[in-house]
Amino acid sequence: MTMPHRIGFIGLGLMGRAMAMNLHNAGFRVAVYNRTRADTTEFADLGCTVAATPKALARNSDTIITMVSDMAAMDAVLEGPEGVLPAFTGGSTLINMSTLSPEYTAALAKKCFISGVEFLDCPVAGSKPLAEKAQLVILAGGKKETVEKLSPVLKAMGRAIVYAGQAPAGTALKLCMNLLVAQMTTALAESAALAAAQGLDPQLLFSALEESPALNCGYFRMKKDNIINRDFPPAFQLKHMLKDARLMLAEAARAGLELPVTAAVEKLLAKSYNNGYGDKDLSVVLRSLTEK
User: Fold this and answer.
1) What is d(CA 33, CA 30) in angstroms, rounded to the nearest whole number?
2) CATH, domain range 6-165
3) Tens of pLDDT, residues 197-217
4) CA atoms of 210 and 282, how far apart (whole Å)
5) Which residues are catalytic, by number?
6) Can you name the CATH fold of 173-290?
7) In the structure, how many helices (H) and strands (E) does the chain have?
8) Where are the beta strands (DSSP E) in 63-202?
9) Is 0.90 surpassed by the pTM of this model?
10) DSSP labels for 66-77?
């Protein structure tokens, strides 16, 4: 099997930094680009090439991986005279691992097809701790044979690949997964707020959860310290989940489907964002529930 030996990674945020580092640690030849150049220093120190522009990165890479915040950020690195797409040649591959809209992703897949560029739609399930341990679940859309060919690259960043179908199936599945994350987080925060309102120590909630075969899950355990200590270091920033919740609601509306619980979650996320908590972990919604 021939593996791409030159990987260009764009987007070194909370998730992207860990994912790019795992590729480097797996022995791939990794070059990076990031809008904030200071975030590339540790990669330069490891001997990785730091590209001045996305175009320069694409010219010297067989495969480009993008992990950026939203559609505007994606446009900024793909389009224009210094973007990735003008520099790509037939036979190159673009793997998008950001969470974008299915509509945008479908259009990007078509654009790549016309340019002779392979495209994979591969957002991930998991947050910063799992990214750091290469334990993400890759939700893959695109040609199955391309997913299989690039599976060594994907598995350097994750524990499993779930093939969803042609693009934008990976993105569609990611929105379904994040709907569960959003509702589980807000449910946990509301439960803790209700416990405190009744004079209970929220620690009792987690003690009870730990004894429940049905409810004792890894996600609640991951958020325990946040809730107990009321401290919310970002593992999944609230601003990104707010963006994703709005994408979920837009896709549901397009299909004529109502998501009333998700709509309520979006309002709580928006309130928390407007309170200045956008860069905190999304479990910070606890503050918006309990602050007067």
Assistant:
1) 10
2) 3.40.50.720
3) 999 999 999 999 999 999 999
4) 22
5) 174
6) N-(1-d-carboxylethyl)-l-norvaline Dehydrogenase; domain 2 (1.10.1040)
7) 15, 9
8) 63-66, 93-96, 118-121, 124-125, 136-141, 158-165
9) yes
10) E--SSHHHHHHH
